[in-house]
Amino acid sequence: MLKQVQTKRTVVDVDTRRVVSMAARGRKPREVAEMGHEQFIRNALKDRLGWPRRDPAPEAIKVAAKEMAAFLVARDAQQAAADRVARDKKAQAEADAKAAEAAE
Known about the structure:
Blueprint: H1 14-25, H2 29-34, H3 37-49, H4 59-103
């Protein structure tokens, strides 16, 4: 039997980005806390392109991981800000309701 050698690719194409991006978007906050977006994306790209995780990533993978992670970090920050605003509005509404109840 011939042993098939897996080749290491360095070009991060659109299809690879799309698959890794969808996997990164579906992560839960606990998973993000354990391993940041950039590291997760870098590992996933290395897996898809045939690089062992113990080997240093080529520059193309590093650049792609940074770009993709920047989008996800910005998305998470925007979501956190929206959640804070919603919590503040809810707390203010509850405080107004209690004040109106106490005034009666």
